[in-house]
């Protein structure tokens, strides 16, 4: 085929995206755990035979930007493509083989048409529990990856359609919730079946040669669009830094420093100057750091492009080995999202210098993960796992959204009525936290509070929180947001807790209250319109005391 019809390119491209969306819907409709079914902590995508991301569903950027790198590692280092067969499914959760952290299991299946490999379909799900010292496999105090759960190197779980039952049993035997793990795995594999069938239908209709030519063109189009977006920003080197509070083992903050260099139609994201890797579990592998950096640039650069591997070509990411943004094995990584969010914050801060009228202040910048381990009536383990969010940073032209999931992790919330029906907890409060958004000409979004009582006789709490000490920053005179906090009440006595916990014993009647951070403000608070401040007071977003102290007024 010598020439491609532009209309046909768009038809096929959208058909491939629709395939990924059908895979996504399959997981949503068939999954078992609340982590997947309610929080939507999963992703689906389609790749070519070289492992390049061609199309993806509207799910989690932190997954989608890293799945291609993981697949490329598998193809070059572990399972070369000439060893794959129709019906194979290769899985892994190993962060040091391109994965994210151990609860995230990736699954890939090749697609053939008339004996020719035309694509690879992939799914990634955050599973409720894969072992380790803490329920939900979140151990904030782990010091090596071996303490975090079952580690699966890239391996065929299905060989020509036949499941490796011995490996499957090992996986289920290492989970506190084997029924939910098995159910969510089956959901992943069903989505792969759906994806393979749809890609086969597309290849049969248009021909293998046309499909391959279109995928190359789609990658090239995204690369060209990304280059144009980068070229539209002024050349220069923009430096920004922010800090992670601590690693849970010491009180020492960890620096994330970036030098963003824009040179023509290329961008270099250099993390030289960032802290050495931590003893605790907040470390990122290079793949994880790249994913967050790609997301920040794709979000901040503007432009109109389809998200795929072509977007990454003009971006170079530099992160020295042995740092918190490119750790060495066997460093623990389960809480890697704390640092990944901070990577987004610093790249956005650097972009705010390059294109100051486009970039908002810092959002809450952490996945507020907590888990409660208790027992069911039959004595088997029960895992309640939750991920909370906070406020977005104020934009130059409008206030930041309240208690809304940031794009990097793009999660939904779990309805409290459903949680109470499944787990031994009762909610006492859930809502926005006044005065948590940073003051400014435009105000940062509010964080939330979520308070619940333990109804089981015993339980163990693990938390992976952040922004308790170093708040999300404001821009151009805007104030930082309020920090988060965690309070446990036992027999009426309230105790302020640190952000990162593991194995904290709780008893029936104990109450846990989490307050998440808001977003930073933008611009001088004295320039906030009086009617906007009056509306904040009326809605309960800002208290009178805070209005007088920060804005010098209580509005109209």
Percent strand equals 15-25%
Mean pLDDT: 96
Give the tally of β-strands: 20
Low-confidence segments: none
Terminal residue distance = 68 Å
From the spread of the alpha carbons, the general shape counts as globular
The residue fraction in helices comes out at 25-40%
State the secondary-structure class.
alpha+beta
Description:
This protein is an alpha+beta fold and 556 residues long. The protein folds into 2 domains: 6-223, no CATH class; 361-556, no CATH class. 30% of the residues lie in helices and 24% in strands. The chain has helices at residues 6-30, 34-37, 61-78, 165-173, 178-206, 208-231, 286-300, 336-354, 416-422, 530-539, 544-551; strands spanning 42-47, 53-56, 89-92, 104-113, 116-126, 155-159, 162-163, 236-244, 254-263, 266-270, 315-318, 368-375, 381-388, 425-432, 448-454, 458-464, 485-490, 493-497, 500-507, 511-515. A hairpin with a 5-residue loop joins strand 1 and strand 2 (53-56). Helix 3 packs across helix 7 (286-300), helix 5 (178-206) crosses helix 6 (208-231) and helix 7 packs parallel to helix 8 (336-354). It is globular, with a radius of gyration of 23 Å. The protein starts with 5 loop residues before the first helix and ends in a 5-residue tail after the last helix.
